[in-house]
Amino acid sequence: MKEKIDDFINYLGVERGLSENTLAAYMDDLVQYVEFLKTMQVNSWDEVMRGQIISYIVYMRDMGLKATSISRKIAALKTFFRFLVQEGILKIDPTIDIDLPKQEDRLPKFLTISEVDRLLNTPDIDKPLGLRDKAMFEFLYATGVRVSEIIAVKVGDINLEIGFAKVFGKGGKERIVPIGKVATPYIQQYIENVRGNMIKKSKKQSTDILFLNWHGEPLTRQGFWKIIKWRARCAGIVKTVSPHIIRHSFATHLIENSADLRSVQEMLGHANIVTTQVYTHLNHERLKTEHAQFHPRG
Fold first, then answer.
1. Local structure of 111: helix, strand or coil
2. pLDDT in tens, 272-282
3. Is position 170 annotated as part of the catalytic site?
């Protein structure tokens, strides 16, 4: 059974160009399902029936998994079994009539403009790491990119004269995003006054990645998360702050200021505009809250 999973993961990576993180998530979900099947004495994929998929859903619910997690795992199984049918390994897809568990409508969390200002103004730009963090945060809020995208940006991917950056999103899809006039000078100062000194501390002393850690090495996702969480605490922000919260804030503030939904979709790199429309719902909910709080008959 593991051999077919390996073939499937290879297919997703080569044919569909999915990221390493996405491939790892698929692998984890499928391996977990194999472990469940073993408890039912199922040892090959052609033995899997619809009832065993239903049993797995019930098992996950009993284990306390949220609907979002269950839906993701079942979606992974659906994709996997479609692959097995396409490859002629199975004749019937056991997941074909199984619907994903209904999920609660959860609106994304975001920071207010005031909170973003506090976060962005927390780093001391007179210090090397402070200037780096200021440049990173300004870039993050100006572009709304994912953390995986910002840590992969290369010096050659940005054009500060015209204020644009090239980023590579899910599946390696390239898009161009505006940097903005506020972020540009901080990025320029970081490149000219800090980045070169960081590279000198590296054993390799050569990298084209834009944002580096103190040792001159490319930042990791975990490293970026730790920096932004620490700076948020320093700014006195009690909300949970992550790179994705800044991405939500970027989109929310654009929509609140009447930005075109299609333009926001393009900047975020969403394949489907339905994904972007959640920010219009978020704006509507905020307006309802404001109305209820301040209108005399709210």
1. coil
2. 888 888 887 66
3. yes
